[in-house]
Amino acid sequence: MAQGSPISYVTYVIFERHNLFTSCSVERNVMLNFFWFIDAGYLPNPYHNNCHAADVVNYVEFMLSAVDGGFIMTLLNMQEVFAAIVAAAIHDFRHPGKSNNFLVKAGHSLAVRYSDASVLERMHLAESFILASEPQFNIFSGMKPKQYTEVRKAIIEMVLTTDLSVHLQLVGSLKTALLSQNKNDVMESPMMLMKIIIKCADIGHSSKATLLHARWSELIIEEFFLQGDEEKELGMEISPFMNRASENSAKNQVGFFEFIILPFFDVVAEIVFTPGFKPILDQVHRNYNMWKKAEMLQLKNIKDILDQVFCVDEHRTVSAQANRTSFVPRPSHIGVHNSSSPRGTGNSGTPAMPVAPSPPLTSTGGGGPSTHHNSMCVTPPAAAPVLETPDEEPSPPLPGVE
């Protein structure tokens, strides 16, 4: 259905559902061009790929339009809704499958360029806005200057919020508002609401149906191990939770829930979404209890945990994601893209992203972007798909909760 371009499909349906083409003056061909290149620019990482991005887009739309009867939609204007959808789609664009900490430790050129601060998030933003600077990809061209300034600011703020290094700051702000009984300060701030929504979506697999949560957890753990493997090969200190040789996935996941997930979802449930958020919060706690059970059983290996606690079929391994996507096989080493030298290497000596031909556009007479956006690792279809919206719009599903 998505023809290997899940972001393009999901965003198109959402744009149609909420009339964003008209309200934000976006041409359909330009929109398809932009999101198709965004789709193709995601690397075939186990976790940070275009399926994750599409999942985040879907979750954002669900939070906006379905939770508590969609009351958040009444608090935002259509430009803010547009910004939230775009931010979700691009929030991990060209993610190399390595963490900010890896880039900083390696002294990579991206870390140098962005002064070690939210390196990946700033790269995702820069790459996306450079793409949109070309006419055939400019989804902002129909906006007035003031509208564009506001939308760009909102997108930047939301994507930067996905950096886990600022997570505690967001949670602290929400707890302060709750303790001081200033909930209205949050509810009357569109920017704060959008930050909360994209954060919920980005770590949203923790609130999905148990088997689906287990699947996403397996994928992120494998991506962590791949980074640890490369750190070992490069003679770097292996980052916490990323050493394949000393795996303790149950303990790590329990810590992640207790330190990151539960404090955030608990305060969001109290300050923003009541009572419609309760099913999501309940699912978060169910998933947490599964990891606690695994820890109690002293299970460390993710495969054992999936089999004995989550009861996932042993054949559902990381490589099985190829059955549902158009990803090409992952090379033994996928490095970090260096935009100043697309075919070279970064400062760390890590190979740059392999370069594939630019996919065609939906409009005629156009070529690929004149900058370095032809570094794609996803097999593109013959042409950017023209997607159709179903005649009857189904109710937005609860993402991943059965």
TrEMBL record:
InterPro entries: PDEase, PDEase_catalytic_dom, PDEase_catalytic_dom_sf, PDEase_CS. Zn(2+) 2 binds at residue 92. GO terms for molecular function: 3',5'-cyclic-nucleotide phosphodiesterase activity; metal ion binding. AMP binds at residues 48-52, 92, 202, 253. The keyword Disulfide bond does not apply. The keyword Protein biosynthesis does not apply. Residues 337-350 have a biased composition (Polar residues). The active site is at 48 (proton donor). Gene3D superfamilies: 3'5'-cyclic nucleotide phosphodiesterase, catalytic domain. PANTHER family: CYCLIC NUCLEOTIDE PHOSPHODIESTERASE. This is PDEase domain-containing protein. It comes from Aphanomyces astaci. The lineage of its organism: Eukaryota, Sar, Stramenopiles, Oomycota, Saprolegniomycetes.
